[in-house]
Design goal:
This protein is α/β, with parallel strands linked by helices. The chain is built from 4 helices and 5 strands, in the order E-H-E-E-E-H-E-H-H. Helix 2 links the parallel strand 4 and strand 5. Helix 2 packs across helix 4. The longest helix has 17 residues.
Length: 130
């Protein structure tokens, strides 16, 4: 007689992720955008989804792999802290611009979290379109 392992406490699904190139292309090509100096947010109403989905694009202009991954990690955390601003059934893509790593290094995480919040608030004021 084998015992089943105890069921792990599943974290509530708060949001999904954009992972495929076609998903990114749909948002960046057909969606709306709001921009700051170092970040651009593209967003679009999701087709058939209920949860918001978020993706991150950090190009090589930002820096090497270490810098790009650091920016992505901090962007994910900043979105987590501003999660209440995400609209249901909407896809978001945050695009980092050159210089963001240096500014993040000098200004700190609070600055990035504030920037993400401002972009999400601006996006919620604009219709997402299809």
């Amino acid at each position: 007689m084998t015992q089943e392992p105890p069921a792990a406490a599943a974290a509530p699904a708060r949001r999904g992720r954009l992972t495929r190139a076609a998903e990114f292309d749909a948002v960046t090509g057909l969606g709306r955008s709001v921009a700051g100096r170092y970040l651009t947010l593209r967003f679009r109403e999701a087709e058939g989804g209920t949860l918001p989905r978020v993706g991150f694009a950090v190009p090589r202009k930002v820096g090497g792999a270490v810098e790009r991954n650091a920016v992505k990690r901090r962007l994910r955390e900043a979105v987590d802290r501003n999660e209440e601003l995400l609209q249901p059934a909407t896809d978001y893509v945050f695009i980092a611009r050159a210089g963001v790593y240096e500014v993040l290094d000098t200004q700190g995480f609070g600055w990035l979290s504030e920037q993400v919040g401002e972009l999400l608030r601006s996006a919620s004021e604009r219709p997402s379109g299809r």
